[in-house]
Amino acid sequence: MCLATFALNAHPDWPLILVGNRDEFHARPTAALSVWHDQPLLGGRDLEAGGSWMALGDNNRFVLVTNHRNLRLPKPENARSRGNLVADFVNSPLTAPDFCNQLEARDYAGFNLLLRDTTGWYHYSNIGQRCQRLGAGVFGLSNALLDTPWPKTLRARACLQQQLAQGLPQPESLLHLLHETSRPKDAYLPDTGLSLERERLLSSCFIQSADYGTRASSLLLQHRSGRLLFVEESYTADASISGRRRYQLQRPLLVEADYC
User: Fold this and answer.
1) What is the pLDDT of residues 96-131, one digit of tens each?
2) Considering only Cβ atoms within 10 Å of each terminal Cβ, which end of the chain, N or C, has fewer?
């Protein structure tokens, strides 16, 4: 995942609303949202390294990972895949703080984790090496630390806040919440060590180019009853919809998964 905005206990009926975009090279092989055949996990799958970017476990655990982009920081030799952290956490017996504390930060290039276990929601980055428990609110996460005021992160969070102000969340509107392609002025772009042309490309919420762009949008919406909706919509390089998968879930999460 490269951009996400989420609301925790900010709506009386919907304690969890999360929307995210996964940006990736179009040539990288990917499996769409599904129940994994070899693990009790629901999520998309990177078929090159075997990991994921966002997934649920049947133990009510959730995890989302984003890369932390700063080319000026040293990259570890033989770095482990950050996508494997998703299944590692879902399958771990450790609490979220204990899981984060036992990670060897130097084994990975920069990353962020958004985690949920039975004790609550947490954010962790191996850049700051701090596991932060999250309270109620609306948050934004991209390829910097949580709520870093990049223009796209601020825009994503503002769009979700606007949806919340309108009352009952509409799944279709939420799924396409981050489809904005406008770009900020150069003066507001982050400086992560990329060329100006690349920073411009990556500055929109929805990214489109021939080789790299937004491959999928995801929506996770949970009602106070425990009922949960997980939707993923996939896109081609020209931003056409190539598929959609939808799971309506009850607890335990994967028992009544339904695909359409």
Assistant:
1) 999 999 999 889 999 999 999 999 999 999 998 899
2) C
